[in-house]
Specification:
With about 290 residues, this protein is mainly alpha-helical. The chain has 10 helices and 5 strands, in the order H-H-H-H-H-H-H-H-H-H-E-E-E-E-E.
């Protein structure tokens, strides 16, 4: 059950209108790593969580907070669009440089949204539910959440340097602070999962019946680049983070299977196949074993 509190978690009011920046701010609303994505991602992870208690509450708490961030950014975008010119002549009349500002605005804000925010990114591409991941494996999801917060913080930081509006900057400072907390929170949650003995690494028992590949493939770094720079990294020597092995440097990768030879395709699909001309199978065909 959800309840809506009319007051915002933090003020979302610019010092003046700016339709051009309203378009840019859409990215952290409806982009791949925007607030709509993380809000829905955390909520779906929480709703799907099969462990009642702290982990489910954590996901639903932060997902609900992020939904509040969606409302704050929508409010900011709508206020940035207030009194925006609707025509080029109007833009030029208000400001000698208004033509450039008008050209940088998103016409969909006015045509589709009536002067309001949209569930879309900065290019006007609609938000997509495919951005959301809720796998059912908490460790895999928490690691993804760390990355999502890192990308969100990166984009907000870039937007911070694209505006001079004090009110907008204050909201961005707040969002950066909360994203910093969330990134640290997911890192702590990963450690908590390990301490609770619930997870070691995502899908740790994918092949529990075989150790055939462990030494050669599970912990061997394969260098596909010229030189040996990458082999100097932490990932090429020393104990592995899962505590089950030692990294080793495999130098140049080697082939473990012969060149693949594919059987002819179904002639009814009209592919270019050996023994097939114009979709008709020749009487003499090579036998592929």
């Amino acid at each position: 059950m959800f309840s809506h509190v009319k007051e915002l978690q933090f003020e979302a009011k610019p010092d003046g209108p700016d339709a051009g920046f309203a378009r840019r701010l859409q990215e952290v609303l409806g982009g791949k790593f925007g607030e709509m994505t993380v809000a829905n991602q955390y909520l779906f992870q929480g709703w799907n969580c099969r462990l009642p208690g702290k982990y489910k509450d954590l996901l639903l708490d932060v997902g609900t907070e992020e939904m509040g961030h969606v409302e704050m950014i929508v409010t900011m975008i709508t206020r940035l669009l207030e009194n925006a010119p609707l025509s080029l002549s109007e833009a030029i009349a208000d400001n000698p440089g208004g033509g450039a500002i008008f050209a940088g605005s998103n016409p969909a804000h006015f045509i589709h949204g009536g002067g309001g925010a949209l569930p879309a990114d900065a290019n006007g591409v609609p938000w997509n539910g495919a951005f959301v991941t809720a796998s059912g494996n908490l460790l895999a999801d928490f690691q993804l959440n760390v990355a999502a917060e890192a990308q969100g913080r990166l984009q907000v930081s870039r937007l911070f340097n694209m505006t001079d509006d004090p009110g907008v900057k204050q909201l961005l400072r707040f969002l950066l602070a909360r994203d910093t907390m969330h990134q640290n929170m997911w890192l702590a949650a990963i450690e908590q999962l390990k301490e609770d003995g619930l997870e070691e690494m995502p899908v740790p028992d994918a092949f529990p019946d075989s150790t055939e590949f462990t030494e050669e493939f599970s912990y061997t770094y394969l260098g596909f680049s010229s030189g040996t720079d990458a082999a100097q990294g932490r990932w090429a020597s020393g104990p592995t983070p899962d505590g089950k092995g030692e990294f080793r440097n495999g130098d140049s990768p080697r082939a473990n299977a012969p060149e693949p030879v594919l059987a002819p395709g179904d002639p009814r699909l009209y592919g270019t196949n050996p023994g097939v001309v114009g979709g008709v199978v020749n009487k003499v065909k090579s036998k592929v074993t």
